[in-house]
């Protein structure tokens, strides 16, 4: 079953900086790009969903010109309704709706693992980015030897849960991603990592719980945001919210302490070296 992005929306809640926010570490890492841009610089987020990250960037840096695009019209309708001073555009899967060399920086959070042909998207990012521009990407490398998903998929334990509930179809290793991005005209400037042990365990537990939850919601496409929203309405909501904050804080602290130590969850900063 293919994942339908017109049925599920991610990113309704703006990314926060507190360590209990599950998006905080990605926002923190991406700041190494947007935090050092001059006033008036143009920033694009590709695959923005409902604008979770780009709204946070605009809030922190109102002096930047912020743009975002997504293939889901449903997600963009939600994003536009939330405001935040961001210019949103609907994107074709194979063509970004922007001109050549239009942006000083491009941000991509949890997107490359979703697209059917990542090389096409990478070349499009190269096209819209200025020469010497910065490209930040976070990608879970599910085909990496450090990833628990690599072994679970090989041995058929909880097989393809990330594809079923999150649309992950690219299960590449760090080496494969590096080769693909390098061949798209970029040079690697910086690497950081996250979700080494606790984060991977939390990720696995979440998807197993999602799978069990989905069995009671036949006919619906379930994603993690829908799942957690339902937990927050349960009779144990107070305890579950406390537990979620505690676990997310532990994952953040682990990621912060070990960010220079390789893991399958890779935060990359690339510089556009050549135009293709």
UniProtKB/TrEMBL annotation:
<feature type="domain" description="Methyltransferase type 11">
    <location>
        <begin position="44"/>
        <end position="136"/>
    </location>
</feature>
<dbReference type="InterPro" id="IPR013216">
    <property type="entry name" value="Methyltransf_11"/>
</dbReference>
<protein>
    <recommendedName>
        <fullName>Methyltransferase type 11 domain-containing protein</fullName>
    </recommendedName>
</protein>
<dbReference type="Pfam" id="PF08241">
    <property type="entry name" value="Methyltransf_11"/>
</dbReference>
<dbReference type="GO" id="GO:0008757">
    <property type="term" value="F:S-adenosylmethionine-dependent methyltransferase activity"/>
</dbReference>
<dbReference type="InterPro" id="IPR029063">
    <property type="entry name" value="SAM-dependent_MTases_sf"/>
</dbReference>
């Amino acid at each position: 079953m293919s994942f339908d992005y017109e049925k599920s929306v991610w990113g309704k809640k703006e990314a926060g900086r507190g360590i209990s926010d599950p998006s905080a570490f990605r926002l923190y890492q991406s700041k190494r790009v947007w935090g050092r841009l001059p006033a008036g610089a143009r920033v694009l987020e590709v695959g923005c969903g409902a604008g979770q990250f780009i709204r946070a960037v605009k809030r922190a840096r109102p002096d930047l010109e912020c743009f975002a695009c997504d293939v889901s019209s449903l997600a963009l309708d939600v994003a536009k309704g939330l405001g935040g001073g961001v210019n949103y555009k609907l994107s074709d899967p194979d063509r970004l709706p922007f001109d050549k060399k239009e942006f000083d920086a491009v941000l991509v959070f949890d997107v490359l693992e979703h697209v059917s042909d990542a090389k096409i998207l990478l070349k499009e990012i190269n096209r819209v980015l200025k020469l010497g521009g910065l490209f930040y990407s976070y990608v879970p490398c599910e085909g990496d030897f450090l990833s628990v998903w690599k072994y679970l998929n090989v041995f058929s334990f909880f097989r393809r849960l990330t594809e079923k509930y999150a649309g992950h179809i690219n299960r590449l290793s760090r080496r494969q991603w590096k080769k693909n991005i390098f061949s798209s005209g970029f040079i690697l400037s910086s690497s950081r990592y996250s979700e080494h042990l606790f984060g991977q365990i939390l990720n696995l537990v979440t998807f197993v719980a999602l799978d069990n939850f989905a069995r009671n919601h036949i006919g619906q496409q379930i994603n993690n945001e829908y799942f957690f929203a339902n937990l927050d309405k349960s009779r144990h909501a107070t305890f579950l919210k406390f537990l979620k904050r505690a676990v997310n804080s532990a994952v953040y602290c682990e990621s912060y302490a070990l960010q220079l130590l390789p893991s399958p969850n890779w935060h990359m900063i690339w510089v556009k070296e050549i135009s293709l």
